[in-house]
Amino acid sequence: MARRPSRSNDAANPSLVKTGNPRADFTVAASAAERTLSTFTAAAAAMISFSRRKSIRDASERAYRLVVEQARQPVFFAECGVPDTLDGRFELVCLHAFLYLYRLKSEWPRAKALAQAFFDTMFGDLDRALRELGTGDLRVGREVKRMAQGFYGRIRAYENGIAADDSVLGAALARNLFGTVGVPLAQLEAMTLYVRRAADDLRSQGAAELLTGCVRFVSPKPRGPRSAARCR
Questions:
Q1: What is 59-210's CATH number?
Q2: Which of 54, 93, 107, 217 is the Cys-Cys partner for 111 at CB 3.0 to 4.6 Å?
Q3: Regarding predicted confidence, which is higher, 200 or 16?
Q4: Closest Cα to residue 82, out of 172, 196, 176?
């Protein structure tokens, strides 16, 4: 006697259920296909979103590394008069971070996510540095908040300075970059010229490069070569 074929597998697949109504059968099959397509689309969208977030994170970390490399050049301390202290180093990082973010503003809104990721990377690194210096957990949060507020203030001051004349930009540098020491006029003028040259040079750099974090800075020396960004 022939065994009756099992319908359990067929019943688990709505596209194979026969209702006797051709239009209804087509609708059921189409609904199953739409659900499959919807699941695939959602998975693809999630993968694209993850890939984009990773790309932005990688770009922000690359840009921050290059900002710090530029800020650590010995010439700033040896020849430009920036104090070789924790404050002086922080100020140089803030200055070069400002220059990069200032350039990114002209690529709004597509650069907005990168600018935020760069900020997060920068202050995440400062948070780690404070902890390595032995700052207690309760105090770290307050210190990072204070530094973030200070950074926003410097952004406004440098932005206003670039938009105005050298006396305004020089005054902003004197208050912040050289805030803990007196600075000879010649060194202040040299740093004012450097900031203008750096901002002008960044304007000439392509958006595609900058959006991947490949930022290049001019030399602190007037006739020195531009930094070679290692974008790997």
A1: 1.10.357
A2: 107
A3: 200
A4: 176
